[in-house]
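Sanity check

After download, print the first record. It should look like this:
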Amino acid sequence: MKRVGRKLASVALGGMATGAAAGGFAIGTQSGSGTGNAFAGGAAAADDASVAWYNPALMTLLPGKTNIAIAAHALKPSFKFQNQGSTGAFAAPGSGDGGDGGDWAYVPNAFFTMAFNPNLIFGLAINAPFGLKTEYDDNWRGDFTARKSEIKTANINPSIGYKFSDTVSIAIGVSVQKLEADLTSNLALLGIGLLKLEADDIGYGYNIGFMIQPSPTTRIGAHYRSKIEYGLEGTAAFSAAAAGNGSIRADLDVPDSLSMSFFQVLGNWEWMADLTWTGWSNVQQLQVIRTSSAATLGPFPGASGATLTTLQFQWDDTWRYGIGANYKLSPQTKLRFGVAFDETPTNDTHRTARLPDQDRTWVALGVQFRPSKTSILDVGYAHEFIKDARINNTVAGVGTLSGTFENKADIFSIQYSQSF
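Expected C-alpha cells:
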C-alpha cells in the first residue's frame, strides 16, 4: 500500500505548484467555481464535481451519471520586508531587505464523479491542499534564518457518497497525500555556506461528509477532514562543508479541519455562509534529526540521533468565516460575490520570514457561463488583504532580525465542468 500510494502521489505531483493562499501553509483555492464566492458555503454548494473535495455527500445532487471539472489557478502572493531596528549581522551595511519573497504559483485541480445508481456515487479529487514558497534575494539581511522555503503537496482523494433519502446524504473518503519540503538558509557567517534541508513522505487520511436538505431551496452541509501525519526523510547538505552532510528525518502533521455550510435560494439569488475550524495546533515545531553520522559543524551536531536544528511554530487553531451570494442574471449566466475572514495560526513571538503569515480578508467576484445544458465555464478573482506581519527573531551570537512584512495576494481561477 505504501508503494502504491507513493507512485500515485508522485504522478499527481507533476505540475503541482506551491502558493499559500489561506492561513498557515494551506492552499485555499480548490475549485474554480468557489473562487468567485471566496469559497463561502463550500460544504453546501453543489455546482459541479469539485464537491468531491469540499463535501462528497453533495455528489448525490449532481446531474447526469458522470461529472468532471478541471480548474487552474494563478496565485500571486507578495511578502515585502521593511527593516525596523535589526541588530548584529542582520543590520550589516549593504544587506538589503530581500525584495519580494512571493512569486507566481500555478495550482491545478481535477475532479470526477460517477453514479453507480441513483443513490450510490463515486468521486475522485486530485489537488494540492497545502503549499508554501517564499524566496528572498541572495545575501539579504535575513539570509541566516531564511532564504528559500518550499512545501509541495499532491493529494488523491477517492470517496463514496450515499443518498439515504431525498433529504439526507453522507459520504466517506480516503486521502493519499505526498509532501515535499525544501528549506535553505545561508550560514556563511559560520563558514559552512548554505544549509539545504530536503525531505518527503507519503501520508494517509480520511474525510466524512454530511448533507441535509430540509426543502428544495435550503441545504446544510458539514465536512470533516482528518489530520495527516508525515515521517519526512531526506538529506541535509552544507555547501561549504560537505563533511557535515548526511541523512535526516522530521515529523510533521498537516491539520484536521471541520467545515459547516449553509445554502439558501431566494428568487434569483443564492445565499451561502461558511464556518471552518482548522487544527493548526498540531503544528508546534519541526525537529530535524540526523539519521547518519557526520562531522560536527559549529552549533550543528554530527552524531546520528542528534537534533540538527529545530524550527519553532507554536501555532494555534484557527477559524475561517465566509459569506457569499450568486445572482442568476439569465438561464446561462450567474454572477458570484463573496467575502471571508481567515485567521492566521501564527503569532508575533514565533513568526519567521519563512512564512510571514497574518490574518487575511478575502474579497471575491466571478461569473459562471453555461455554453450548453451540460457544460459550465467559471472564471473567478479574489484579492486577499493581509495584515502587516511583525517579526522579531533573535539568534544567539548573530543578532535580531526585526521588522514588518507588507503582505497581499491575488488569485485568478478558471474552471471547465461537464456532465454526461
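If your output differs, re-run the checksum step. Summary of this record's structure: The chain is about 5% helix and 55% strand.
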